[in-house]
Amino acid sequence: MKRPALIIWLLCSLSPPAGAEQEPDLRTISVTGDADVLVVPDEAVLRFSVQAMDGDLDDALDEVDSRAGKVLHAIEEAGIAPKQLQTDRVQVWPDYDWRSGKNRGYRASRDVVVTLEDVKKLEEILRRAFDAGATGMGGVTLRTSELRKHKDRARLLAVRAAQEKALALASALGAGIGRPQRIVEEVQPAQPWWWGGSGRVATNAVENASPGPGQSGETTALGEIRINAKVTVCFELR
Q1: pTM above 0.85, yes or no
Q2: Coil, helix or strand for 97?
Q3: Residues of the chain with pLDDT under 70
Q4: Domain map of the chain by residue range?
């Protein structure tokens, strides 16, 4: 007999007080601004590989360490500080003759990583490393020492691009935009910039932050790296 009264009480407690104003549903428009800042790289990370093979595992490891040491020494002679050099990722695997199934020995591999703060030396370091015994190249990653500054600039351009896009879309429909209701930056996974890699497309805004001709990049044509920012903004639609 008490259930109807309880239900009525619950309904009353969930109802807004008399005279309370309901917030109107805002009409909104959500757009994404995508911007790139183009920068001539001033740093490079080079990864060389050194390999050796021997019938004895310990001898293979000793040989690959010796070859890696020669590569490091050759790079140091180019004026590269020891703090910019490191050896990394030792790998060992048996070398099987797949026809006979016999183990012919062991292959050992070690990486030599060079952080180059003067990109003008890139070609010289490549030549020295291979002349000293490097057997492979894991890639060249180009980057900028002023990433934070250029990333902040890219974000600003992305926000402006989003505002311009929202204005254009709203205007085409006879409307306007009001205050931003929500701003979300799309966090993108970090990706290296490979020497000779392809560029991005479909960007709303692009700014060239590179120095003028003759100021940088005269020896090696490194091109430019793209620092991207993508921001989604939800505006009030009026």
Answers
A1: no
A2: strand
A3: 1-25, 188-221
A4: 24-41+146-237, 43-143
